[in-house]
## 1
Amino acid sequence: MEQIIFEKSVPGRGEKYLPQLDVPEEDYNISEKREVPPTLPQISELDCMRHYTRLSHLNYGVDTGFYPLGSCTMKYNPKINEEVANLPGFTDIHPYQGEETVQGALQLMSELQSYLKDIAGMDGVTLQPAAGAQGELTGLLLIKAYHQAKGEERRDKIIVPDTSHGTNPASAALCGLKIIQIPSDDKGTVDIEALKQAVGHDTAALMLTNPNTLGLFEENITEIADIVHDAGGLLYYDGANMNAIMGYARPGDMGFDVVHFNLHKTFAAPHGGGGPGAGPVGVKDFLSPFLPVPIIRFDSSKEKYYFDYNRPQSIGRVKAFYGQFSVLVKAYTYMVRMGWDGLKKASEIAVLNANYLMQLLSASYYQPFRGPCKHEFVLSPKNLKSLGIHTLDIAKRLMDYGFHPPTIYFPLIVEEAIMIEPTETESKETLDTFSEALKMIATEAQENPEVLKTAPHSTPVGRLDEVMAARKQILRWLTS
Amino acid sequence: MIPKDLLYTEEHEWLRLQENKVIIGITDFAQKELGDVVFVDLPEVNLVLEANDVLGGVESVKAVSDIYAPCPGRIAAVNEALTDTPDLINEDPYGEGWIVELEIEEAPKNLLSAAEYEEFLNKGE
């Protein structure tokens, strides 16, 4: 295993970086002057270069292999997105420049706002939120501001189904709202009766992702919307699963009032460690006055784009400047390149790939919810529990077959859940190879369970003691 | 393992009813499902709760699970030992792994007896 850089340190090795001092030495007399030099690793440039290059080779990403992380949409990020985002016209501008000198950048943002409105069936968009969860917080602040403006501060309850992404109740709590969780029905979708019981004069909104985290489309969505609206509440669309419906269905048409987009999921900007993300928020007309400032608009008389700060009901800024600009450029590039038909095709293939993979695995793994799925599906290997095999063992073993493990133990309502989202960018061959690996693992569980329980065997480090790591945290390197 | 002298909820909590107090923990089934507990979020003493309010959380490497107040009450004591040794919940869920003591005015309703809880678990299998 690669040592950490401090372990490679040799005293004196790193002293030759700075050139000879060729000016008179001045002593400065300040109280903050440090008395002990910092404990930086002492290492030659070559050894430093090799260390980090080797570490980079240990990394695993979409560019190296299949990454079927459910609800995360780990699709390929086309390199043209990077190329465009690196154009000097985008990289060499400053947020404090005058509007007239950055008309191209503003045009891009304005057009991106329009595309997002069209895709989601919304009337207004802010590009500011820096990630999906910040988009949720922004959307909830808008909902709160709306109820307050109507004199209905008492609406402080957010309803979430028990399949919701964990960020939904977390964002609501951060926004100072209370959470009511409702159970799912036998089919894995919103229990209509439970929803009817939960709504009332204190309902602020229902947060829903559709398709939900089981990969199932909420077929009663218009009835759900009516129930919430009739009670005076609003509908929030968690856009994490939008990759399933582009061009086929729009949250706005389903009855949703607010939606966030994950540009780093659905619109192919890099994700996770390769981020940052971006979580624009779209709203229906009646919520537009509350959107964060500034909004980018076009003045047709002067034929120029400008920042509109004149929005007295705005909730204010949610991020410095105008959002994660380079991520916006990447998502815009992706959309322009794909076109409306391309985006629709992407959703079609994402759903097809998920259903194909689900079918391949149907004989080997228990599926708690039958029937066609959307972009992702959930397996429950609870039949292997009697052999002492748990989902964690299967996930770890998948690494030995060269795959990133799927999302596990989520959604919470499925015992031993394994949640798989292949995305549209994977080939049939990759799906076949992955399903073969999972089938092999199911066989190993019967014939050689020990190899699963001790997996992974081929990675730089073996099975990590997650319990010890959580209970006895050592968060920094201590020099002896 | 379902002790006969305790009462239970469908959220897999156990309750030991005393005069004007109830001691609350999570069941053996719950700790097994959660796996190794790594952190317990304990409430402040004297916190006043309504029925079904979240009074704390139990976190394992797999998931975080809320603990609910079975009835209105005031937190009279919390098991401080869980701060440093959350694994007590795994080792002794009905004893050393107790979580809070709630001072109550009325006994909570709709609880399950040991036999009813066992039946509830079997139904879920």
## 2
Amino acid sequence: MKNKMLTLLFAVAMISTQAQQSFTSNDATASVMRSNGKIYVVVAVVLTILFGLIAYVIRLDRKISKLEKE
Amino acid sequence: MKLTWWKISAVVLLVYAVVGGLLLPVPELSQLGETIRNLYYHVCMWFAMMILFTISIIQSIKYLRTGDIRHDIKAMSYAGVGTYMGLLGYATGAIWASFTWADPNNPAYASFGSIMREPKLIGAAIALLIYGAYFILRSSVTDLDQRARVSAVYNVFAYAMLFPSIWIIPRLLPSLHPGQEGNPALNFNDIDTRMRIVFYPAVLGWTLLGAWISTLIIRYKFIVESKIVNNEK
């Protein structure tokens, strides 16, 4: 579960780094990230924050579950 | 950890609220522009707050009927997260208002005096202060049973006070804030269909997230409580 969350987080982070590539890049992701006034960059940023917060809540949940078993 | 269906749906709905909320088409209104998308975030905070307060008062009434201290812990946790979401709703509303209500020819703080006269803002502040007093009241009573009973009764009063302060009085007074003649976000004839398909899932998602955090607090408090009981024996 934790690994999947981390993979997802890094995947989102990678999309946002690809948006930093040079203007001549014809990479599909980069052009998506640059379209529509670059709103997709905002989506990636907000999703990264949201996933970070959710991962934190899940971690707390697991820790409390462990305490409950003791 | 049990990843139950409602925790998964909270995550899915929140992702949808962010992606759909930022990308799906919205009606174009001159005053609001793209800030109309705040409906999915700012308004959801208040909806989640109201729902969490409702769960809280139900738990308080359950405590008064049974005398089971666990209901008191639940009531406190839900009220706490509800108040927190109310504060977030207030903060986001302040940002939104400073770019839609404030006089664009002056810096936003120059309009502070006129914006702060909004009856909805004053009403919401009163409601949050009443809930703030709930926590002050709790921490000022040291006896566990007495604290639970007094705060349960106060919680009923606080919930009752929500209705005049955020539902009734702001609608009797002139206001810039929407919702003067009813519930614009709930009214099917008023809210645009394109927004409805994001708004209702968003309300659910934020409420579930609030409930999730509340259950974490409750489980933590139960552990603390059982440790105290075990040490006394």
